[in-house]
Write a structure and sequence with these properties.
This is 11716_t:CDS:1. It comes from Dentiscutata erythropus. Keywords: Coiled coil. This protein has about 170 residues and is an all-alpha fold. The protein folds into two domains: about 1-60; about 75-170. The chain has helices spanning about 1-75, 80-105, 125-170. The longest helix is centred in the N-terminal third of the chain and has 74 residues, at about 1-75. It is rod-shaped and about 140 Å long.
C-alpha cells in the first residue's frame, strides 16, 4: 500500500512540478515583456524630454522676438493701430500702381519700341525714351520688392504669434 501512496505522491509531485515549470515560464515571459515595455517607455520619455527642451528654446526665442516687437511698438507714436492701417493703405496703393504699370507694360510688346518723334529724330531723343522706359522698369521692380518685403513682414509677424500660441498650448 505504501508503494501505491508513493506512486500517487510521485504522480502528484510530477504534475505539480510541471505546473510549477509552466508558471515559471509564463512569469519569465511576462517579466521580459515588462522589461521591454519599460525600456521602450524610457526611450519615449527621453525623446519627449528632448522635445520639451527644444520647445523651451523656441519659446525663449519667441519671447525675445515678442519683447523686441513690444519695444518697437513702444517707440511708435500714439495711434499705433492707425499706423498699421496706413501701412496697409500704402501697400494697397503701391500694389495698385504696380499692377497698372505692369499691365500697361504687358500690353506693349516685349521689344523696346521707340515712338517716332518726327523726321528729324536724333539718337539723343531715342536714348531719352530708352532712359524713361528703364526708369519705369526700375520703379516697377522697386515697388514689387517693397510689396514682397511688406508681405514677408506680416507673414513673419503672424508666424511669431502662431508659434507662441502653439508653444503655450503644448505647455498646458
Amino acid at each position: 500500500m505504501s508503494s501505491k501512496f508513493d506512486e500517487l505522491r510521485q504522480k502528484k509531485n510530477a504534475r505539480i512540478k510541471a505546473e510549477n515549470m509552466e508558471l515559471r515560464r509564463e512569469l519569465n515571459s511576462r517579466n521580459n515583456e515588462l522589461k521591454k515595455t519599460v525600456a521602450d517607455s524610457s526611450a519615449k520619455i527621453g525623446k519627449l524630454n528632448a522635445k520639451i527642451v527644444e520647445l523651451e528654446k523656441y519659446k525663449s526665442a519667441i519671447n525675445k522676438l515678442d519683447s523686441d516687437m513690444d519695444q518697437c511698438d513702444k517707440k511708435l507714436p500714439e495711434g499705433g493701430s492707425d499706423i498699421s492701417d496706413r501701412e496697409i493703405n500704402v501697400f494697397l496703393k503701391y500694389k495698385k500702381k504696380t499692377l497698372e504699370i505692369f499691365n500697361h507694360a504687358a500690353r506693349k510688346s516685349d521689344s523696346i519700341g521707340l515712338v517716332p518723334l518726327g523726321p528729324r529724330t536724333s539718337m539723343i531723343e531715342h536714348l531719352a525714351q530708352l532712359c524713361d522706359k528703364a526708369l519705369i522698369a526700375e520703379e516697377c521692380t522697386l515697388e514689387a520688392n517693397q510689396e514682397e518685403i511688406f508681405c514677408w513682414h506680416y507673414y513673419g509677424r503672424n508666424f511669431v504669434f502662431q508659434l507662441k500660441a502653439l508653444c503655450d498650448k503644448v505647455k498646458r
